[in-house]
Amino acid sequence: MSRGSAASVFLGVDVGTGSARAGLFDENGKLLGSASSPIQIWKEKDCIEQSSTDIWHAVCAAVKSACSLANVAPEDVAGLGFAATCSLVAVDADGSPVSVSLSGDTRRNIIVWMDHRAVNQAERINATNSPVLQYCGGGVSPEMQAPKLLWMKENLLDSWSMVCRWMDLSDWLAYRATGDDTRSLCTTVCKWTYLGHAHMKQWKESDSRDMEACGWDNVFWEEIGLGDLLEGNCAKIGRSVAFPGHALGSGLTPTAAKELGLLPGTPVGTSLIDAHAGGVGVMESIPDAGSKAVSDEHAICHRMVLVCGTSTCHMAVSKDRLFIPGVWGPFWSAMIPEFWLTEGGQSATGALLDYIIENHVASPLLSNHAASQSISIFELLNKMLLSMSQEQNSPFLSALTQDTHVLPDFHGNRSPVPDPKSKGVIYGLTLDTSEKHLALLYLATIQGIAYGTRHIVEHCNAHGHKIDTLLACGGLAKNSLYIQEHADITGCPIILPRESESVLLGAAVLGAVAGKKFPGVRDAMKALNAAGKVVNPSSDPKVKKYHDAKYQIFRSLYEQQLSHRATMAQALQ
What we know:
One of its GO terms (molecular function) is kinase activity. The protein is of the alpha+beta class and 573 residues long.
C-alpha cells in the first residue's frame, strides 16, 4: 500500500554484532515497523570474524520484512541510511571478499570491532607518539583500524596484496548499495586517525559534497609501516570523504535496489558507526516543547548519550576542541556536523551481564523460572532483588551489595584509563550458588558498570565538558534497574527516547538528509528525536553516601590490580 506522495518514510539499517536490523520512520520520527535477521560470527580466541556476503543477505531480508510489516511501498521510502559496528571489511577490485582469517576461509573477510588480535600492534603504534594520537585520547585501541591493518600486513601478506579496498562496515554497506566509495567523516575520523578538522575552514555541512581526503597524516602511516596504503591518493582507505547524511552517488543502484526490494535511485546518506547513529537518534530528545524553544546552540553540549548494547559508548559534543587523556577524540564532525565529538566507552556491558548470568550455576534454574512466567531473565532478577530488599529490611535496594564489588574490565578498559590488559574483578565471593546469589552478583555488576560511567563523566567534566544530563538508548536502556542505578550513581537525570530503536532512527536521519527533506543532520534530529520517560536520581542522601563509598572501592580495585601486576612482573624478571 502506498501512503501517497505527501508523506515521506525514512529507512534506517543497523548492522550490530549479532544481527542486521531495519526500521521505517515517519516524518515525526515515529517507528512504523522494524525487523531483524541474524548474522554469522566466528570466534577463535582473540580473533572474531564475519562475512560481508552473509551480512548483505541479512540486510536485504531485514529491509524486506520491515517494509512488509510497516506496510510501506518502495516509492514511499524517501531516503535510507546505514549504521554498523566499526568492523573492518576487506574486498578486492571486483568487490569480492578477501579473507582476514588465519583459517584462510574466504567468506571471513571482516575483522569484527571487538577483535583483540592487534594488541601488540596497537602498543607499537602508540610508542611512536605520533601527533595524530592526541586525537584518540593519546593512543589507538586494538579495536581501531590502524592496528588491525598492521596485523594483516604482518600475518596475512597474500590477503594484504589482494585487497583493493579496506572499509569500515557502514561505509562498505553504503558502497555496496550505491557503488560510491566516499567514506564518512564518522568512520574515518573515529577509527582510522583521519584528521577531519583539515576540512574545518573549507567546508560547512550545507556545502554537502564529496571532499578530497586531505586529512590523512602521511608521516604517521609511513612511520607505522603502512606507507603502501597512501598509494593512488589513499585509494585503499579513502580518496574522498563526506559529512554524515551527504547523498552518495546516484542513490541505490538497480542491482542493490532489486535485492533490497526498493526503487533504484532512492537516496542513500553517508553512513555512521552504530553508536554514533544512536547519538543522532536521541541527542535532541528534550522532554517538553518549552525546553526546545529555549534551547540554545550550546544546550546540546550539556548532554551525554549512553548507547548501551553489547558494549557502551559515551558520546558528548562541544563547540570547542577538548583534549581528554584516555578518552577518544576530539573528532570533528564525526557525529553531528561541525561539532567536536568526545567518545568514551566500556568494551563489555551487555556482554558482561550475559557472561555473569550464563556462567553462574543457578543460571539454568533461573532461565526456567523466567520462561514459566513469560518474562525475561533481567525482569525476573529485578523482581527478585525487590523481594530480597524487603525481606532483609535493606534501607534501599542498592545496599544489598555492600559486601560485593565488581570491576567490570572483563574485556579491558577502553576509557578513561585505556588499558586493554585490565582484568575484571569480583570481590566478596562465597560458596553460595543460589539464584539469590546470582541476583546480587547481577546487581553488583550493573553498579560496577555504572561506576565506570561515573568515572568517564567526571573525567570529561574535569577536562572542559559540562555534562549534567544523560540520554540512554540501546538494549540495556530498556532495563529499568540498570537505568535507575546509573541515575543514582552519576547523579544525573537520564532521558529515555520515545522510540526504543534509536540507532535505527539515527540511521534513518541520514536517509532523510540525503533525500533533502531537511537541510542538515541537526535539523532532522530536532524534528525526528522525541523524549519519553525521564529517570531522576534518588533524592535520598543515604543512597548518594552509599554509592560514593562504593565508587571509592571501585576506583581502588584498578589501582590494586596495577600494583599486583607490577609485583608479578618483578617476580618473573
